[in-house]
Amino acid sequence: MDLLTLGGLIVAFCSVFLANWLGGGEVVLLLNLPSAIIVIVGSLGAALVQSSVSEALAALKLLRWSLFPPSFDLEGSRQTINRLALKARRLSIIALEDDIKALNHGFATRALQMAVDGTDPELLADRLHDEASRIRDRRASCVSFLESIGGYAPTLGIMGSVLGLIQAMANLDSPEALGHGIAVAFVSTLYGQGFANLVVFPICRKLYRYVDQELLSNQMFIDGIHGIATGKHPQRLDLELGGYEQL
């Protein structure tokens, strides 16, 4: 689990409650279920209108990466490729068939299987680069869906405030109730801004980084397996892969 994500969210929300408390505000005024419903549920509904069911479900699955991030160990992948290159040079590329399942990396497994099956190295590289780009585009589309939720949240927050003010104006004959109603109404604006800028957008930036790391990992395997397929010397191949750096 990514404790940094949890820690960051806790610090962000605590800063809001602490500022409210230091300013003499009541904590209970920040807790408003109708405001949360119109901001969170309303933003999700608006995002669904512009999307498809499959994209929304894929986005929710990708959201797990924010707490349970994938591991893309480029240095470990480089060592794996070097080991495969040495074995292929000592024996043959056919001898790598026993190593396919042991890779435990879906993209690398397909790439190595194509190489072992005798696919033309240039055709292999072209197809795999296209596949890596499509994977990246699908992931980015999912993150964009989540990002759109944050884009709608501030507007839904303002709408919630307007609804609250309408209800508050019904109590013009009671100044005390009117003041309380106005205070509660503006909580919706706070929820909209907070949900977008403290939750959605930071998580999306983190997901974009993981998506880029996945693309980098796939590209390393493409270059590495292409090098093995063309019979490139293991030391030269390892030196070329040294240019990949962890994001």
TrEMBL record:
Positions of transmembrane segments: 29-49, 143-166, 178-200
Subcellular location, record wording: Cell membrane; Membrane
UniProt cross-references to InterPro entries, sorted A to Z: MotA-like, MotA_ExbB_proton_chnl
Keyword flag Cytoplasm: no
Gene Ontology biological process terms in this record: bacterial-type flagellum-dependent swarming motility; chemotaxis; protein transport
Membrane topology listed for this record: Multi-pass membrane protein
Cellular component, GO annotation: plasma membrane
Entry superkingdom: Bacteria
PANTHER family, alphabetized: CHEMOTAXIS PROTEIN MOTA, MOTILITY PROTEIN A
Family under the similarity heading: Belongs to the exbB/tolQ family.
The protein, known as: Flagellar motor protein
Organism: Marinomonas piezotolerans
